[in-house]
């Protein structure tokens, strides 16, 4: 695959939906060197932050004529709004336009039907808002090498990107990484709650839980060691950590709960895709 950078993009990128995820992507693009004059945004509810970008050259809510030839349409609207919004976006899509979707549960076939174009389906997650997201993407067969490279550069502006060849994997991807931040936040929430039950003041328990989860995540990010090794490094035989892990790793334990949780999320993703 040919490499492409944001600075290499010389045609129009049209972003449909500038909410939390779409806005995070736009911020990442501009911070990464994409020329603001190459970006157009379609968003019915323009935030002050997005409105301020108009002064830098970002076009807001252009019509088809004003937008000109769109190289890539990035669809970041809510999935339940896609049928209505997609019909309005279709006039922007030409024969050579690629369509990059970050909507959960929306298949390549649905995107081709509603919008047309050469479709890339992607699943980012919310840490994209701080440039630490991870996105998994799959391209339709008619996506060219160059179109895939441009999509990769746009998605990589908010974190790392992994490509897969099987669209069927996207439901499990959604369950693991798309929904995954909520599991981590729940861990912090319940760790703090357990601390209170053990006698800690609520504010201190929450501070300890937040910093422990955040710091451990950063250690995992920076370390080349497997998560299992990092866990073992903290666990002294017969110590306090071992006592707690005996509960979490017992039967039934965290492993069983996580398997069931991911299965439930995967099933729901498949249902939404219908």
UniProtKB/TrEMBL annotation:
Catalytic reaction(s) noted: L-proline + NADP(+) = (S)-1-pyrroline-5-carboxylate + NADPH + 2 H(+); L-proline + NAD(+) = (S)-1-pyrroline-5-carboxylate + NADH + 2 H(+)
Signal sequence range: none
GO MF annotation: an example: pyrroline-5-carboxylate reductase activity
Keyword Ion transport appears in the UniProt entry: no
Keyword check for Isomerase: no
Pathway note: Amino-acid biosynthesis; L-proline biosynthesis; L-proline from L-glutamate 5-semialdehyde: step 1/1
Cellular component annotations (GO), alphabetically ordered: cytoplasm
Binding site for NADP(+): 76-79
Domain Pyrroline-5-carboxylate reductase catalytic N-terminal residue range list: 16-105
Ranges where the Pyrroline-5-carboxylate reductase dimerisation domain occurs: 167-272
Keywords linked to the UniProt accession: Amino-acid biosynthesis, Cytoplasm, NADP, Oxidoreductase, Proline biosynthesis
Localization terms from the record: Cytoplasm
Pfam family of the protein (one): F420_oxidored
Principal place of residence: cytoplasm
EC number(s) stated in the UniProt entry for this protein: 1.5.1.2
GO biological process: L-proline biosynthetic process
Domain of life the protein comes from: Bacteria
Gene3D superfamilies (UniProt xref): NAD(P)-binding Rossmann-like Domain (3.40.50.720), ProC C-terminal domain-like (1.10.3730.10)
Job of this protein: Catalyzes the reduction of 1-pyrroline-5-carboxylate (PCA) to L-proline.
Homology family: Belongs to the pyrroline-5-carboxylate reductase family.
Name assigned to this protein: Pyrroline-5-carboxylate reductase
Naturally occurring in which organism (per UniProt): Bradyrhizobium cajani
Gene: proC
């Amino acid at each position: 695959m040919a490499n492409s950078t944001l600075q290499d993009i010389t045609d129009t990128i049209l972003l449909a939906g500038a909410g939390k995820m779409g806005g995070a992507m736009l911020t990442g693009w501009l911070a990464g060197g994409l020329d603001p004059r190459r970006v157009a945004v379609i968003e019915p509810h323009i935030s002050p932050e997005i409105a301020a970008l108009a002064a830098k050259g970002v076009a807001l809510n252009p019509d088809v004529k004003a937008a000109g030839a769109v190289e890539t349409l990035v669809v970041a609207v809510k999935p339940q709004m896609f049928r209505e919004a997609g019909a309005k976006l279709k006039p922007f899509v030409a024969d050579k336009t690629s369509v990059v979707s970050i909507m959960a549960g929306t298949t390549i076939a649905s995107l081709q039907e509603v919008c047309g174009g050469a479709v890339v389906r992607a699943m980012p997650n919310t840490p994209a808002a701080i440039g630490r997201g991870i996105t998994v993407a799959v391209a339709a067969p008619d996506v060219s090498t160059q179109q895939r490279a441009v999509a990769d550069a746009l998605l990589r502006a908010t974190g790392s990107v992994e490509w897969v060849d099987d669209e069927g994997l996207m439901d499990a991807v959604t369950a693991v990484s798309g929904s995954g931040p909520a599991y981590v936040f729940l861990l912090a929430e319940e760790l703090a709650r357990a601390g209170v039950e053990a006698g800690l003041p609520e504010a201190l328990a929450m501070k300890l839980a937040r910093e422990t989860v955040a710091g451990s995540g950063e250690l995992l990010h920076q370390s080349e060691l497997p998560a299992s090794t990092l866990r073992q490094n903290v666990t002294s035989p017969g110590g306090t950590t071992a006592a707690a892990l005996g509960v979490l790793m017992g039967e039934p334990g965290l492993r069983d709960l996580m398997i069931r949780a991911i299965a439930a999320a995967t099933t729901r993703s498949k249902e939404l895709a219908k």
